[in-house]
Predict the 3D structure of the following.
Amino acid sequence: MPLWLLVPAFLAGAAAIIVPIVVHLRRRPTSKVVPFPSLMFLEKVPIKAEQKRRIHNWFLLSLRALALILLAVAFARPFFTDASSLAATGSGPTERVVLLDRSWSMVADDRWERGLNAASEAVAGLGPLDRASLVVFDQGAETVVRGAPDAQPIQAALDTLAPSSGATSMGPGLKLAETILQDSELAAGEVVIISDFQANAWNGDEGVAFPEGTTVRTVVLGGDEVDNRAVTQVALNRERVDNRDRISPAARIVRTGGEQEVEVEVSLELDGRLVQTRQVILPAEGATGVAFDPVTVAQRHTLLSVSLLEDGLPQDDTWNVVLSPGRATSVELLSGSSRGTSGPLYVRNALEISEEQTFELRPAGDLSGPQALAQRHVVILNDRAFPGGAAGARLAEWVTGGGGLLIIAGERGGWASAGPDLFPGQLGGVVDRDGSRGERLVGLDYDHPVFEVFRGARQGDFASARFYRARAFSVEESDSVRVLARFDDGSVALAERRVGEGRVLVWSSTLDAFWTDLALKPVFLPFVHELVRYASGRNPSVEAFTTGQVLDVADAEAMESAGLGEVAEALSASEERVALVPGGETVDLEADRPFLSLDRAGFYQIRPPGQDDVRPVAIAVNVDRREADLTPLDAREVVAGVGGSVDGTPIGSGPQGPESERLRQEDLERRQSLWRYLLVGALVLLLLETLLSNRMGSGTRTGGGHARATG
Amino acid sequence: MSHARARSSAPGAQFLDPEVLARIDNLELLARTVVHGFLNGLHRAPHLGLSMDFAEHRPYVPGDDIRHLDWKLFGRTDRHYLKQYEAETNADVVALLDVSASMSYGSGPVSKIDYARFLTACLLHFSRKQRDRVGLVTFDTEVVEYVPASARNLELALHMLDRANPGRPGELRPALLQCAERLARRGMVFLVSDFYEEPDVIMESLSLLKGRGHDLMIFHLLDPAERELPGEGSTTFQDLETEEITPVVPEQLRAGYKEMIEAHVAALRERCTGNRIDYVLLDTSQPLDHALFRYLTIRERKARGR
């Protein structure tokens, strides 16, 4: 068993072995001094010369010498380099990172418990120079413990962890691990990924590459089929009856796994009270719909939940939404005088045909009055010129303050060149298109909110519509001017200009059946709705959010874009707010930290402090249903994706160089700590020597020095 | 010489015990008590064989001590005559006392210097009773104190004796040379010392006095421990005069040491005898009567020899 020394220079201390020999040979002064009249005769007593140089007690000398040798070797820090020792250290001191999946799918079966055990085992065998870190991840990642020298802080952290409400994404956790390994001074690294490895958690382009010398190991917790039932969607069909909103919820229930159909109970709650239940038959690996009777929504921020009995994955058994009575978009439609054409008929009908009563057409009024356009969201000038004078100024002022103006050009639409600077371009004369064939609408900007909903296949066919006549429309695009659609000859069909807080959209043709047959196409209705909705600048209310999102309740614009405009309006009345989060805890949303992290599924309710009688603002949060898809991913794909080797060998050639070798030796020595045993042995020998020498007494003949001639 | 302590059964013999004497602070009282007791013992112990024969008569002169009137002769002659004893020789008796540091040693209650004081005081007192002129010299490497021999200097001598305090190293030859120069008249000189020098040096030093015609008597004073080598186990001995130290295991050296010291004593005795110097070996554990008896014996012999 080869023995090496970490600090061989300390062996020089063994030279101290000469000390006990010198002490042995020299006179040992005693503590007892006796005065005597004269040493005259003592000095004359003859002694033999060799007695002075004789060592009398070889055993004591041996004990002392051996103790000194053991001390010297202990300080030199010896260690064995046999095969078993080398195997225990591997490639030397290691930076170990444990990645633990805490997404809500880990609740299934005993995956979480097995994950905790695997994490404990991963850090159980830490060497004296090893470092360990614990990173938990769901759709994000967090370093819980970093660079711990032993397992204790990690074990303490594991005892406090619980699965989250987040979905799974491998990327953030792997990125954190990559950062930890790159910052580490240790040459060898090891990453242990503990997860159920869902396929939707990995897309292969996370851009993570672990450094050389890293070993990647996986602990796969999934794979077993789970019989899961989930409420995946709740559709809310609104209708207005007697000036009240009645909503008919319809839920979609999906079952994955299972072998036989089962009967499940689906319940509907309003503001926490059970109002309806339904019994449905759910086939294995199937889905079904559940329709509830209409309910009346009389108050704002009404909480609605559709729930199933809890199963193996309870997070997706409830779907939460927040309902408020609808607020229609107020539209003022100003049209030119009728010439026997359909005029604004198609537009009016399109706006009036809305299952959700989204638009409210108001009678046209005096645009110049001080209360003109109050409570209006959109003004449509259909085949009508932009008004001049006070009305025009008032309209321009209103647009700049946030109103939406839709100009349907027609024959008479337009504006004076000396008019306000509102318009995206300049309308020209009427242009007849290609005979009976007409022009088609192409070049739609599907990134724009007007056309975004039509992006998918069969989401809206504009290509079949013909445009026989349109106005010439010259537009110079800029930061505030944007062309949203063109005809196939390249001329502009639709353009937008942002003006202050508002916007102006100009449609260069008509929205009737005279210049075009678009009004006869199925896409016409949703197109008009999107056009007017965008012009109004009002985002539809979001009935529910997904876990992982963060709301800045003090940022009105952010709240508006998140569909919480009216929530922002209510919250802006006070700077002090208290949020009640799912689970019953409260969070103070202070003026300097107004962030609300939607980490849990359920209802978040916000109200100013001390106003318990005020109905709180509510936000519904659901878990990401993609997490319910437990389709497994081959863990080797993840290992390969980060540059690791599926056979467990280190990335690259492993840690090399003299520094790595030195660390490896030091790690070996610390693991064995042979110096402790040598030190104990030396102490035992010194104790034994002390006891023996005291018991033996002097045991050494020390006589006079030189002989003197007697008289 | 026996090392056992000889105790006289004569009355007053307890006053010869050094331990008893050590309790008497007054040296004059001590000397007077010892001598008186000793002499009483002598008078009541006829086997001692010591006599105080008178040498001759002389006519009575008014003022003489009438205790010495010879009434027998008056009966025969009808004239008053005084007895004149042998001791009434009016000689000089000088004590030479070694006060070097080695004399301070003592293994028991009485150190060598204490014993030497007792002895010297007694001998001086005794000599004064014999109408001798007494003197004292204390020395180490040189003369420390000098009291000339005189009929009136006994108290002074006892006082100096009381003050004698050993502390310095000693060397016999230069000291005795100074002594010899100071002692103008011939007389009796007794030297009290532990004689830790080579016999040659000692004899050479003594010859300085002997050569001046003095009657020399030496008292070799040793502590019992000096003759036995005290201690057990590893011990460090320190020389009182040189302050040298040496580690010693006494039990391993004792036999050789005793041989050496007995050889030294024998050498001194032999050489003193050969040079007609009276040599007395004294042990501080023994009573003073032996020393006193020897002193008287020697004095008597010398007196007869005149």
The interface with chain B takes residues 27-30, 32-46, 697-698, 701-705, 710-711 of chain A (CB under 8 Å). The two ends of chain A are 70 Å apart (CA to CA).
